Prior knowledge:
With 456 residues, the protein is α/β, with parallel strands linked by helices. It has helices at 13-22, 39-53, 68-72, 86-98, 110-133, 146-157, 167-178, 210-215, 217-222, 224-229, 231-237, 246-249, 251-260, 265-281, 286-301, 329-342, 388-410, 413-422, 429-442, 444-451, and strands at 2-6, 31-35, 61-65, 77-80, 138-141, 161-163, 186-193, 196-204, 207-208, 240-241, 346-353, 366-374, 377-380. It has a six-stranded parallel beta sheet with strand order 3-2-1-4-5-6, sandwiched between helices. Helix 1 (13-22) links the parallel strand 1 and strand 2 (31-35). The radius of gyration is 21 Å and the shape is globular.
Amino acid sequence: xxxxxxxxxxxxxxxxxxxxxxxxxxxxxxxxxxxxxxxxxxxxxxxxxxxxxxxxxxxxxxxxxxxxxxxxxxxxxxxxxxxxxxxxxxxxxxxxxxxxxxxxxxxxxxxxxxxxxxxxxxxxxxxxxxxxxxxxxxxxxxxxxxxxxxxxxxxxxxxxxxxxxxxxxxxxxxxxxxxxxxxxxxxxxxxxxxxxxxxxxxxxxxxxxxxxxxxxxxxxxxxxxxxxxxxxxxxxxxxxxxxxxxxxxxxxxxxxxxxxxxxxxxxxxxxxxxxxxxxxxxxxxxxxxxxxxxxxxxxxxxxxxxxxxxxxxxxxxxxxxxxxxxxxxxxxxxxxxxxxxxxxxxxxxxxxxxxxxxxxxxxxxxxxxxxxxxxxxxxxxxxxxxxxxxxxxxxxxxxxxxxxxxxxxxxxxxxxxxxxxxxxxxxxxxxxxxxxxxxxxxxxxxxxxxxxxxxx
Length: 456
């Protein structure tokens, strides 16, 4: 089988390849095509993968291409993890918002809306190329904002595209480890949108261990979510929210912490990434791999540092407890591929079409919910409906997402202005319009959305 990875020069690629190296089932991925617009990034990442494959019998063959069609042609699976506008765009996403004392974050709030605006047209083009060149392929979308992008792509690919976020599944794995339980016997009751959801029950052999988790100061406080939210708020809620809900529940603190930090997350990553690719260009073999390991460890350790009382880029203790190969994005993606290609039925949490799963949302909306995956595709599982607070927040954010999708497809400034104004983290029509104008002025890819005709 053939796997195409769009954004093949990205940092997560070695995790995916390591997962493939560990996979001994049949059929398995035999060819991995890395596609990226930057030939230098491709060359560096190919060197890392070559070192990982050294001495491994029947390691998947790696090919690189700066062209999209060659990578896609005949693919069985497509991973999409691209960044339209690069890290310079991400820095603008952050700074335009912060200049107006509004949250500047990659996927949550106005920064995520600007990111979606410029990314949707590109991902729709990719979806059309997949449909033409690899009509039987399943697309596993990592590109952020993942829920919004996946929903837009469904107009072209239908159920053959799904979005992945490893945070919900990772929580179940971490809780199981904390209690010494077998994670394979854990079932998760989760509902939400991408980066906006709630773990309501964690079942082990049918018994909900959430009450025990919330009652245990040590275990709860050792989790990433305990560090971010604090035990008291988690107990008040009675559920474990996705960590990105920190930006809603503690918005003032988050904005203040980000403004006070010497650099934003995007600025930190831009410097780190530039240094990494400069170093890796002169490295080979084991040196290239070690450079990647050092860099990715630093990135992971500084994740969400500003909401944990540290500066963006400052390394903190790792509370995730998750192996990024087995339980992170790579592990979830491999489980999806194996479930479909081998009919190895598996339950996981994905971003998929809603249908009748969450009755308060449109059927064609994308939601993040537990699903069963098998050779016939992805099937959302029935679940208890979200409570009033959860439903209200999901509806408002989903309305905003759909306005952004419409604006990106139709070049509508009115839809975009409404989206920014109605986002719960903006809370002002005048500020919403200033945000939109700021992104148009500072990010060429956003300006281009409104300079051309509708995207069909």
